[in-house]
Amino acid sequence: MNRASPASSVLAQSAPVLFPGIDPRRLPCTRKPDLWHSTRCGDKERARELCGRCPALVQCRQAGREGREFGIWGGEDERDRNRLGRAPLCWRPGKYDIDRRGLPR
Q1: Domain for residue 77, yes or no?
Q2: What Cα–Cα distance (Å) separates residue 82 from each residue in 32, 100, 102?
């Protein structure tokens, strides 16, 4: 069982600020916030799937890129953002590194 992460709690609490005009009850990340910060592959895939139906998908993806966040944001994880040159600020060398072709090392 995954423990609640501080980041997931912040995401759930800050959703109304990050996505004004969107009812937070319509955001899947506010119902199961730990899913978006899990290290389990199945959880990550489920989070990506739920992101695809979220009304804040574009805004969330942008917030993840601009904030250089960990976890799934707008259907992207750290590796996706690293490929775009938007790696998390607290980068752990080797954890999400990619080579010149964009493949994991």
Answers
A1: yes
A2: 25, 11, 9
